[in-house]
Amino acid sequence: CEFRRQPALNSSEQFLLSAARGADLVIMGGNGSDTRSPDDQSLAERLIRNLGRPVLVLPPNAHLSGPAERITIGWSETRETTRAAHDALDLAAPGASIDLVALLARASDDIPGIDSREDFAAALDRRGFTATVSDRLSAVESRGEELLRAAKEKNADLVVAGAFGHSQFYDFVIGAVTSYLLKSHRLPIFLSR
User: Fold this and answer.
1) Residue 6 vs residues 28, 50, 51, 93, 159: alpha-carbon distances, Å
2) CB-based contacts of 181: which residues, under 8 Å, 6+ apart?
């Protein structure tokens, strides 16, 4: 752990990006507080989008007493999800219960043989974790809410997701799960991009 003071009042984004690129893990607060300015909220999103390092986002009054015993991973067939899932294993307790949750718009979206989630679950089992897979139906615009609901039902200690897997235009028009998680979480959120 290291504390660095910013010597000037300008360019906080560049200072934070430069200071955090060598970190194994970046820890920051979420965007849910009404006291945070819109620029401060977008700064957290810009850092996650541009940093290239895993980020643990903590809610107010977070209680982390050790490695996570129960983890919910929002699964999709993306590079960002794969990276987040692997990166988060460093925060998992030995034998942790890990639920891989796919959020589908329609049940027909689940195509047998195309989902690497089963392979990842088998790899987790080989490493001594208890892995389960589940599908949840959710409209695109409510996937963040559904992921947090799944985590709450499993009493998860940690929620894991790939960050900003779509273009900024897509996120603006459709909405981003990552943005929702940053604003609405009550659990620690682990993000990788």
Assistant:
1) 16, 19, 18, 35, 31
2) 57, 144, 147, 148, 159, 161, 189, 191
Query: d(Cα 115, Cα 6) in Å, to the nearest integer?
Result: 45
When comparing pLDDT for 178 and 23, which is higher? 23
b or e along 88-98 (b: 16 or more beta carbons within 10 Å of the residue's beta carbon)?
bbebbeeebbb
pLDDT at 111: 59
Cβ contacts of residue 109 below 8 Å, gap of 6+?
none
Per-residue pLDDT, 109: 59
Rounded Cα distance between 52 and 108, Å, is: 34
Structure tokens at 66: 């050790």
Structure tokens at 62: 């977070």
Q: In 3-state terms, what secondary structure has residue 93?
A: strand
Q: Which amino acid makes up residue 60?
A: P
